[in-house]
Design brief:
This protein is α+β, with helices and mostly antiparallel strands. It has one domain: Flavin-binding protein dodecin (Dodecin subunit-like), CATH 3.30.1660. The chain is built from 2 helices and 4 strands. It has a 4-stranded mixed sheet with strand order 1-3-4-2, covered by helices on one side.
Length: 101
């Protein structure tokens, strides 16, 4: 009988955690002449049209700049970075992003 409250507490905690992950959609910023980075909750009404991947020696900021440059080259209005991490080679960063119109 003592396990029932523990199970209920666990279920309530899990449901609350899921609610934290679902955000209210937010409008993206107004388009400019350069691609802009947006967050997941800003992509609700946008059309994705591609993905880009970069491998950049340096720092995470260098990889972010390379993603922004590729997004501009592909004429994206917005991009969302979905992964940014150091590779097995120290100092080489891999980044992936989704491009939006």
């Amino acid at each position: 009988m003592k396990t029932l409250p523990a199970i209920l507490l666990t279920l309530c905690t899990m449901m609350t955690g899921c609610a934290v992950l679902t955000g209210t959609p937010v409008a993206p910023p107004a388009p400019t002449d350069r691609a802009q980075e947006i967050q997941r909750d800003q992509t609700a009404h946008l059309t994705p049209f591609g993905r880009i991947t970069v491998n950049e020696r340096g720092s995470p900021m260098d990889a972010e700049q390379a993603i922004a440059a590729q997004a501009n080259d592909r004429h994206a209005v917005y991009y969302q970075i979905i992964m940014l991490g150091e590779t097995i080679t120290p100092g080489v960063w891999r980044g992936e992003a989704i491009l939006y119109r």
